[in-house]
Amino acid sequence: MRKLCNLILVAALVLVGCDPKQEPTANIQIDPVMLKMKVGEMTTLEVTGATANIVWTSSNEEVATVIHGVVTAKAIGKAEVTAAVGEAKATCIVYVTGTDGASLRLSPPTVTLNPGEQYTFSYGNTYDLEMTWSSSDPAVATVDQTGRVVAVAPGNATITLATNIESVTARVAVRHSWGEYQMVWSDEFNGTALDETVWTYNTGGSGWGNNEKQYYTTRPENIRVQNGCLEIEARKEHYENCEYTSARIMSKNKKTFTYGKFESRIKFPGGKGTWPAFWMMGNTGNWPNCGEIDIMEHVGSMDARASFALHTVMKNGTRGNNWAKTQWFDYPLSQDFHVYAVEWAQEEQDGKDVIRFFVDDVQYAEVWEEQIDNNDYWPFNKPFFLIYNLAIGGNMGGTVDDAIFEQQRIMYVDWVRVWQRAEQ
Prior knowledge:
With 424 residues, the protein is mainly beta. It has helices at 2-18, 394-397; strands at residues 29-31, 34-38, 42-44, 46-48, 55-58, 64-67, 70-73, 77-85, 88-97, 104-107, 110-113, 118-120, 122-125, 132-135, 141-143, 148-151, 155-162, 167-174, 178-187, 200-202, 214-216, 223-226, 229-239, 242-246, 248-250, 256-257, 260-267, 274-282, 292-297, 305-311, 323-328, 338-349, 352-359, 362-368, 384-392, 409-423. The relative contact order is 0.12.
């Protein structure tokens, strides 16, 4: 009898020892320990240190519910989701935002101040979390831990408001005070040779990325300075596997500018297939990352039309999404000289740059920084160089009518002038 009782006791102890409720639970952990969700989203939490008998609870089921580790965001707010096995517990703090994902707000998005002025931002903090304020450039604008900004010097500074789950930003634009435009450089082309301290010849016939038909040379038959003008002549002749010749010059690494007014008095050739241009490119980096400003492009088959364009890394001709505008006139542009110009102004309004295009002192187009790539890829804040060329055919020049070469096809450049303004 005693032996039977002992056997029963041993069996009972074995059964107790096999009860899954008794597995070790001292070190359970939950992943993640903090979660940010939008209303309507679902996320599964993971528990380590236990695989069964996990009891899930939410401190606020109006904000977030949990079933078998699956959290569902119900409404804006904060809830603690807990996984418990016996006495062991692990908690994930769940922050639920609206469908826009924002729990932290900062307004207005841009503040424009004069040096010395102050402004205090408005903000919203859904969860009343500890906040930190910072300025990307304290030399332009400082910010204290109440959101009060002091404008120090002209320029732009990004103000960041951050918690441990989110950050938001706003711009402080401190106004510049500019003087009048003054001419800082010009080439009047009054000599008998190209100034090679300023200009470099581009040569070649590779199509130049536009399926152009000409070979660019340095020969006087294609480029020369005489009679007070730079002359670029396109000719129909077989040369280096091309059927046409012409010329192209640039001021890269020799004469560069950042911001200003750029003007040139030019007489373009007409004729189906000609494609002359006065334009600029960034002095560093490869195209299109360097940026491109087409001050004026002329297509001979549309003689009364002027074209203006900008190219950036994300918006350029190869993507077919660059900014461009055309302007039609009541007369052929090739009949006479005209002044083609661009004004490239720094942080003119709310800290944003602007580029304006002109023909004979009349403005025909305007582009603000925010219109290109949401400011992320704006390359027009560094040195650019000047380019003149006369292309034949290509993507924009179109089909070439060889009959046009029965007369000379010459692009005349009377002068180029650059104006800049000093900060007062």
